[in-house]
Amino acid sequence: MSNEPVTLFEGQEIDVSWDGRLCIHLGECGKAEGDLFVGGREPWCRPDAVSRAEVREVVERCPTGALSYRDKTGEPEPAPGENRAMVANNGPLYLSGDLEIEGAPDDMPGVRRRVALCRCGASKNKPFCDNSHAEARFEDGGAVGSRGPGLSEHGGPLKVRLMPDGPLKLEGNLTIQAGSGRLAWEGTQTALCRCGASKNKPFCDGSHRAAGFKSD
């Protein structure tokens, strides 16, 4: 593996990139059937081992944006028809959709569609999750109490603003999925906790101020 944060695996029809800054090793790629990703093999990823369609399908399973592809036909990864935030049990906020994340580097193309954002407050790679929730013993089952105001349509851009020393502000059509899998909240704007201290998780209740949360 390269020491660079992004490793490129080139194929005849499609290339795959892996970004070590975003990977939290959930195993969606390594456990996928087929020979695209094989642990212990060099190279670990071989885009020509499977069809272009399978490369796209498996890469799109990655919930953190660590994996992305460049289809040489020029066809980009499509935006999902729905923007969704999944509140993981004792873990991060998984966002998927047509994402516009404030300040996201241009060399992180995967986060335009899929990303795992820290909600424990302990990540050393904020706003992204780096698995620090395990060491911090962050506990929240991902229950969502509010139904939200509802939606008249789905999809479209979802803007994610990183408030300094404060919450994530989301603007756009959004569905929040509870840790149980239930589709729980729908609306077009909300503020979500990323300090880990809110008593109304996943929503912000202003606790970041008393907690002295620092977003840098």
From TrEMBL:
Keywords: 2Fe-2S, Iron, Iron-sulfur, Metal-binding. GO terms for molecular function: 2 iron, 2 sulfur cluster binding; metal ion binding. Signal peptide: none annotated. It comes from the Bacteria. InterPro entries: CISD, Divergent_4Fe-4S_mono-cluster, FeS-contain_CDGSH-typ, MitoNEET_CISD. Pfam families: Fer4_19, zf-CDGSH. Residues 102-139, 178-214 form the Iron-binding zinc finger CDGSH type domain. Gene3D superfamilies: CDGSH iron-sulfur domain, mitoNEET-type. One of its GO terms (cellular component) is cytoplasm. The keyword Metal-binding applies. This is Iron-binding zinc finger CDGSH type domain-containing protein. It comes from Allochromatium vinosum (strain ATCC 17899 / DSM 180 / NBRC 103801 / NCIMB 10441 / D) (Chromatium vinosum). The lineage of its organism: Bacteria, Pseudomonadati, Pseudomonadota, Gammaproteobacteria, Chromatiales.
